[in-house]
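Problem 12. The chain below contains 228 residues. Write out its predicted structure in token notation.
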Amino acid sequence: MENEKCGNVINISDLCFHYHHKRRILNHINLVVNKGETIGIIGPSGEGKTTLLRLINGSLFKEENLAVKGSIKVLNTEVENFKNLNRYVGSVYQNPDNQIVFTNVVDEIVFAMENYNYSKEEMDLRLNKVITLLNIKHLIERNPNHLSGGEKQLVVLASVLCLDVQVLLLDEAFAYVDADREKEIFDLLYRLKKEGIAIVMVEHDMSHLHLADCVYRLNEGILSKVVD
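Solution.
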């Protein structure tokens, strides 16, 4: 990984995006997110908020018939050229069912660590740390498919935080979380922020963005700052 200690962990310059033969979804987007900074993005449904996150984490580049112009750098490396990007960029989407694969919570949490060849000792340390942070020890032997929506979201978040995440992307990640758990997660996000992790939060409105250092609106392909 290049320049692990760089100040700008996300640097998007003049980004334009559309699927071939369709209208442009993102239009000359510029965005810089620094280490330890939290950015909020709001806007109507269907205006490209999730698309922008999927460009940052590289998942959209796996699809065909894309037209992408401009530059997207994470940790000073172009996303398209960043090997093992998901080790450093964690993503939590609105519906946890789309991210859960296994029928055991422990297997779900450690899967990514196994893919990146963490040692057994390191996996055990990280697993114990994250389940304590998220207060989910009582869930680790359960089938995630039998959990509540909020509990599933915590399992997804745990699997992400077990890695060497320096950027956390949250796409309406609180939709299934009850008020008590929501407070716990925001306390954790505040801690992660203080530890230098950059956080990008996509929401429909401002209600979950009290943690944000600044907020942008994405509308008709244009990203503009609304709160600083």
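Discussion. The beta strands are 8-19, 26-34, 38-42, 66-74, 77-78, 89-92, 167-171, 198-202, 214-219, 222-227. Students who got a different answer should revisit the alignment rule from Section 12.3.
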